[in-house]
Amino acid sequence: MAQPTQIERALGDRLRARLPHSVSELIMFVVKMGWAALFGGLLLIAMMITHKLWQDDWPIARYDALLAYALSLQILFLVFRLETVGEAKVILLFHLTGTVMEIFKLHMGSWDYPGAGLIKIGGVPLFSGFMYASVGSFMARAIRLFDMRFAPYPPYWASLLFAGAIYLNFFTHHFGPDIRLGLFVASLLLYARTRVWYRIGGWYWMPMPLAGVLSAFFLWVAENVGTATKIWLYSGQVPGELVHFSKMGSWYLLLYVSFVTVTLVQRDALSPVPFRPDPKSDPKSDRATS
Length: 290
Known about the structure:
Elements: H1 6-18, H2 21-36, H3 38-53, H4 62-79, H5 85-107, E1 111-112, E2 120-121, E3 124-125, H6 128-145, E4 149-151, H7 156-172, H8 180-191, E5 195-199, E6 203-207, H9 208-228, E7 233-234, H10 247-262
Antiparallel strand pairs: 1-7, 2-3, 4-5, 5-6
Helix pairs in contact: 1-2, 2-6, 3-4, 3-6, 5-6, 6-10, 7-8, 7-10, 9-10
């Protein structure tokens, strides 16, 4: 199991000494979640800053500048060991699968990139793949930072088939039936028993589908930052208009694709049997959130 860093331990000890236990745990949870989402957070900040400052007559287009920025972030994450090389390879895979879907969806008119840029593939700025990669980065880092366990986890082959069906449906529903309602039901049938165990000071858990819904909501919020800063706009969307709430459903499903991709290198977080925290490691470990 991952051990807390010296900074994390010092901060946790200081908070627990001055605040009620539940309050200190909540603060540590927020801090660790923010640290896990560092890559995505820095991308959102760059989107907002460039939206306010960038001029059309500058020598480099905004999308290209954001690509250079995202590449620099990825290099720094590896240099400072915020991500492992193995995690970076899997995140690259999610980057590629996300870019392929972007090209297809742009061709089908689902959304558009209104800005200029030289480095594009099929009309899609190469920067866009990093927005998908940031989701993978968050998952990989959160699993490590919270020492997460997913148990009891369904057969891995079943999760691979489920993720593949989700990914394919994003393409095939343009030409045939949309099976996303069935996929929502399948997510409950497959993961209803799975608990996401995570450690702050003590151990906590929540049902995996609930974790997916909460994560999808925050991704919907991030999407509104993307459209408000005119990185992209959905078909028929007016600038400044909120992204339709139904997009949460798309992100809920896509999160399972991201999760299964990340677990290609973090299989040790998955357990086919129920997880039981060691009471000797923390006498207050058996708390649950649901």
